[in-house]
Amino acid sequence: MERRVRGRDSELELLGDFIGAPGGVLLLEGPAGIGKTRLLNEAKEIARRAGVRVAAAEAFEGQRTVPFATLLSALLEGSDPVWSAEGLEHLRRESDFSYWIIEELQDVLERAALEGPLLVALDDLHFADAGTLVALRTLVSRTAGLPIAWIFALRPGESRAELRELLQRLEHARRLELGPLCDEAVAEVVADRLDAPGEPALLQLAATARGNAFLLVELLEGLREEGRVTIVDKRAHVRGGELPARLAESMRDRLDRLGNDACQVVRVAAVLGQRFTAEELAAVLHSRPSQLLEPIDEAVRADMLSESRDRLSFRHELLRQAVLGTLPLSVRRSLQREVATALIEHGASAVHVAAQVAESAMPGDEWAVEHLRAAARELSPTDAEAAADMSVRALELSPANSSTRGALLIETLAFLHGALRDDEADALAAEALEGALTTEEQAEVRLSLSTRLSRPELQRAEENRRALQLPGLSPRMRARHHGWLAYSLANAGLIDEAQEHAEDALATAGTDDEPARALAILALSTVAMRRGEYTAALAQLDEVDAAAAVAEGPLVPCLTELRRAEALGMLGRLDEAAVLLRDNLERQRRERRTCLEGAWLAMGSHLRFMAGALEDAVENAEAAEALGFPFSATPGGAGAMLARLQVALHTGDSKRRRAALTTAHRTHADGGPAAHWDATWVFALASGDARQAVGRLAAEAQLVPRDPAFLPHLARLALAEGHQALAGRAAAVAIGVARANPDVRLLAGLAAHARGLVDRDARELVRAAELLEGTQRPLAQASALEDAGRVIGDVNRLSAAFELYSSIGATVDAKRTASRLREHGVRLRVTRPAPAEGWDSLTESELRVVRLVGSGASNRRAAERLYLSPHTVSTHLRHAFVKLQINSRVELARLLHEHDVPALAP
User: What is the DSSP letter of 169?
Assistant: First the structure.
């Protein structure tokens, strides 16, 4: 018989109000045994009575290594599951399951919420797997505004990183903290359990539970078991003041009261975890499930175990922990090993037994090492944190003289970097390098550190330098260190030294080491790009054997394609670069390579700015930054930083200007000469002090800028401040770049523009405007038209510049050009900036996304249709929701209908 919840009237009222609201998040917090689970069950009943659909699950400590276990259990199980197992299996068959699962879950939740209000209730969230916690960070925010009530029960004070991050995201959630039951509530529970009000002595004994609901029930049930409660004059009396054995004695005594078989079942079950199946228990005990019927039944009757659907579980986690406490450590470890072995033989994956393996193993246990390595590899696409933990544990267990320890060390470093635990990885590498590694293993460790794009270029280069000083390096290893050193130096702007090391890499690699040759050629092409020799760089990249490069991982092929896209952009072949961008974004998304996806988003920002798509450029930069991408790391990074600044200047957006400045300060602190030049260019343009800007730029070593279209701008800035030498250098560089890339109309036009400004040659300025027409660079063309029109007083050219500026949203430039036209008696209206709110405020990209999503497409489908990253789709949606002042797709669909905006078929 279900008894009424006592002492929680205000909490139940709050739960009722919360479930009746449109949606939100409620954190139900309290220590073990305080009554969280019971209150959560009441919340589910309140929801069902109100016609609210319920998706609920309990997290278990043993499932921490199973990705998305808790959340999937909530959505797939129960009498009215929100999702179907068929849908999950269909998704699992895709190679990018781990990437798309969150997108799919968002779609599932949105569809369920469209049908009616939904309660998602998760118990013991502190035990949830990292996949569930990461998914919740995204899903709760993305479904804000939908009729979805989230209730999470957990113990306060848990310190897991993923849980901390989730709770930080939920800082505005409602909190319900459960304290001990009051004396009145304790008296009511006594009356409920013993079928009569308790007399003072009994209530005094009940008070020893200190208001903990679980312990109070255990105490009362113990008194009943021992026959110490009698009903006299309709009141419950107790014999004796001592605690019942059920509570006062140790769990060992309680187990002793069970039969031998039931005792064994309970002890083995405690090692299996809080929740398990009879089949799993039978496999560990080498029995048939039918042979366990009686001992399981005895354990259930003794209130140790309970049945829930197709699984067994301990009645409370406190009971399981107490049972584990009765096992000597050596016996516990032996049982954990036996459980892990039996489950593996029964078909369980390495991930499902990882916790038992990790806890049971002793140093030198190579069987455990191999299983933990397998678990780490399996976990890495979905749970980088758990993968790193498993690999670190495997390394701790690995024998010092193991032939595989060096490879395991490299794997562990990779997993730590994948989990963004760079400090831990650096400490491990430093410790390993002080140990007894072979020369080749030391070089492998340093090679791993040198390829981490999150590290500044010169730090990466230093790892290669140290490795190259090691005696007896193999040609293969020497070639790779020369190649990565060359690449890092070239990116840092130290191009002469970079070329020497790239040539050393080619010479060392010979003709049969294609991966090393690919890396060396990538470095040489980077040198060529730094010198403005874009045609030569593109020709070099065509020599790279992509198939051979892939054999050593995805990094070199990706960087090669990034460099190719950049070279195409510099040559004005933006259509070809856009195809590369689309294909590579899709590949990195599919293969869950977040850092490389960030690199392509950053490159996309650079390319979209060149094409005059100013809002798209910023949105790509923001999407890259949201992934934690370091802008100083790869070819597109600095371009994205500069693109964001340029857009801010062309549109008068002070907020974006400040964001670009913040990034520039980080870039200047971390990078070499190239990063200093890029950052200084940002400081110069954003400072508002032209004289100081010119002084800063003149003090920097001359480098070809990230975008040669900056050179006419630099010349104009220097001339305005009377710095003829700097203007002359800018023009000379532009002319040199054009000569290094003959027959490239874009570069010839930029050279003519810079030279026309410096020489005050009107014919060159007119020629520049003509050359730049049709080069897919509207800002560069408009700038040349404006300068030509200004110098010769040509209203037609000024008007053409005005139209170009206006067409791409460069309102600051349009206003300036309109002012010049007024001097000639021509009055043109500057198109007002797009409003901050409403349909007219949406960019073309945002409108395409909302038309798809509003007609029922998931983020995944929208990304596929529009050839975008899902992160970019999410960014577009987030901006659109703010501009439209809505919070959900339901509201979006309604607005599309009300405003008669044509939908796009998903």
Answer: H
DSSP 687-751: HS-HHHHHHHHHHSPP---SSTTHHHHHHHHHHHTT-HHHHHHHHHHHHHHHHHSTT-HHHHHHH
Q: How far apart are CA 906 and CA 904, in angstroms?
A: 6
pLDDT digits (tens, 9 = 90+) for 332-391: 888 889 888 888 888 888 888 888 888 888 899 999 999 999 988 888 766 777 888 899
pTM of the model: 0.69
The domain defined by 839-898 carries CATH number 1.10.10.10: yes
Q: Which CATH class is domain 9-177?
A: alpha beta
Per this entry, what is the length of the chain? Answer: 906
What's the confidence (pLDDT) of residue 901? 65
What sign has the CA pseudo-torsion 540, 541, 546, 548? positive
Which structure tokens are listed for 342?
Answer: 């039996």
Beta bridge partners of 276: 312
Q: Encoding tokens for residue 515? A: 């991966």
308-322 in b/e form (b: 16+ CB < 10 A) is eeeebbbbbbbbbeb
Which residue type sits at 230? T
Q: How far is it, in rounded angstroms, from Cα 613 to Cα 207?
A: 71
Domain ranges of the chain: 9-177, 183-248, 251-327, 708-832, 839-898
Identify the CA nearest to 292 among candidates 315, 255, 266, 314. 266
For domain 251-327, which architecture applies? Orthogonal Bundle (1.10)
Query: What number of other Cβ atoms are within 10 A of residue 48's Cβ?
Result: 15
| Residues 593, 627 contacting (CB under 8 angstroms) | no
Closest C-alpha to 24, from 146, 154, 168, 169: 146
- Give 675: exposed, middle or buried? Use CB within 10 Å, 0-12, 13-18, 19+: buried
**DSSP tag of 290:** G
Q: Helix or strand or coil: residue 56?
A: strand
Same topology, domains 9-177 and 251-327? Answer is no
CA–CA distance from 606 to each of 617, 621, 679, 777, 870 (Å)? 7, 8, 15, 12, 19
Strand partners, 150: 25, 120
Asked if 399 and 610 count as a contact pair (C-beta separation under 8 A), the reply is: no
Nearest to 147 by CA among 18, 13, 28: 18
Phi–psi pair at 901, nearest 5 degrees: -85, 125
Q: What is the pLDDT of residues 805-831, one digit of tens each?
A: 998 989 999 999 999 999 888 887 655
| C-alpha angle 873-878-883 in degrees, rounded to nearest 5 | 125
Residue 137 has pLDDT above 80, yes or no: yes
User: pLDDT value at position 540?
Assistant: 93
**pLDDT of amino acid 95:** 46
Give every CB contact of residue 646 below 8 A, 6+ residues apart in sequence: 609, 685
